[in-house]
Amino acid sequence: MISSNLTDILIIGAGPAGIFTALGLLGANDGRRITIVDRGLPIERRSCPKAQTGHCVHCHPCRITTGFSGAGAFSDGKLSLSHEVGGDLPQLVGAQLVQDTIERVDRMYLDFGADDHVEGLGHPDEVAEIRRRAIRAGLKLVDCPIRHLGTERAQQIYARIQRHLLDAGVELVFQTECIEVLVQDGRCTGAVLEGPDGRREVRAQQTIVATGRRGADWFERMCDEHGIAHEPGPVDMGVRVEVRNEVMEDVNNVLYESKLVGYPNPFRDKVRTFCQNPGGFVSQENYDRGLAVVNGHSYKDRKSANTNLAVLCSQNFREPFDKPLTYAQRVGELMNMLGAGRILVQRFGDVLDGKRTWPRELSRSNVVPTLPDAQPGDITSAMPYRAMTNIVAFMRALDQVIPGFAANETLLYAPELKFYSNRVSMDQHFDTNVEGLHCLGDSSGWTRGLMMSSVMGLLMGEDLARR
To answer: Pairing mode, if any, of strands 437-439 and 198-209?
Structure first.
């Protein structure tokens, strides 16, 4: 329950961007009242029932994507330690500032208990060989140091951060949804919130929207309704690929996460690998209106026989079309229809043969699905031709870098969608054209992932403290 209808700084969303905004303010000894609102649960109450039931029970809202720390607490928990990875924030505030802030944020995570081991350092000869193979295949290797928190350890780290915020006097309000931001005469005056105690207006001097990918669609509507300057960005859609660890062994041991980028013919769209999970597990996330989306987790202490990673295609739309988020959602809905509400899985060989995958065929494979309730079927019946063509061409190129990656039994899960295509227009202080309103993290369209969202939040908090 919100204790008052007035606050100084209202943060909508308790993901990494919102959390680090509060940490930035506290670190600068800002004495203003901070209220963070999230539609999900506190960290200690976040648990996915699927671990007990064996199947998704469609919690509303999804406990994997909402609550304190956002989707970060239930992701693989990787901190990318290079400004070259994680979106376009360097274009907004400068590459050097972002890299310097990454180092400060990294130290903060260490202070809250992150593992001091960094993946992807050393092994220069092995990395050079992987790069040579990538060049021959027409791909670019982006080698980035990674601090792996781990899905279960990330929850422990964020539990300490939650305790720290509460002890410092930050008001954390859960199971409360933002219905609308309040804009009057070109200024944001707060928001309309709805929780267990009903709906009411909360007034604030500064309002910060940090709702993550899950809230990107909602904030796009707010932009349209209130004249908040924004523009459509590229939409990322693709598949989650799963192979045996033996196939990925060299890359896993040397880099932990291989970030490979290509522009395959005939469309020359950007295609990339993302979120690699050695010994990981494929997972399901649920968004509004029951949309089921695939993702991947990687634990510190619990390992599978497989590695999973995303293959994502970026597509830019031109006028008159300006709804890439809606486009991606429709593709996801078609996938869900084919899977009767479940994630679809298909063998790569069946994609090439033009046939669906059947359960009996999966049972004969070396690759045992780590998402056991995924529905064997035909991804190509719903995936757009352009995206599917990109995926096949990219995977064949990747097979030259990682032999066996494009084997017939390699598993493809869909839909893998990233909802950050609505890009909010802001200056280097994260000010929108509406006074008193800021947008951070993946919902802003400027970041992708845990580290960059945290960096954006810390810079926001410190900037507000200086005003």
So the answer is: parallel
Length of the chain: 467
How many Å apart are CA 458 and CA 13, to the nearest integer? 15
Taking alpha carbons only, the member of 47, 46, 59, 56 closest to residue 14 is 46
By C-alpha distance, which of 160, 163, 162 is closest to 111? 160
Q: How many CB atoms lie within 10 A of CB 290?
A: 12
Task: Give the residue with greater pLDDT, 188 vs 290.
Answer: 188
pLDDT in tens, 323-369: 888 899 999 999 999 999 999 999 999 999 999 999 999 999 999 99
Burial 205-242 (b: 16+ CB within 10 A, else e): bbbbbbbbbbbbbbbbebbeebebebebbbbbbbbbbb
Supply the pTM of this predicted model: 0.90
The residues, any chain, with a CB within 8 Å of residue 64's CB and separated by 6 or more, are 48, 71, 74, 283, 284, 285, 286, 295
Amino acid at 176: T
Strand, coil or helix: what is 390? helix
Sign of CA dihedral 343, 349, 354, 360: negative
| 279 confidence band (pLDDT: 50, 70, 90) | very high
Residue with tokens 């802003």: 444
8-state DSSP, 336: H
- C-alpha 100/C-alpha 440 separation (Å) is 18
Residue type for position 428: Q
Strand partners, 204: 7
Q: What is the pLDDT of residues 247-266, one digit of tens each?
A: 999 999 999 888 999 999 99
* Cα four-point dihedral sign 41, 42, 45, 49: positive
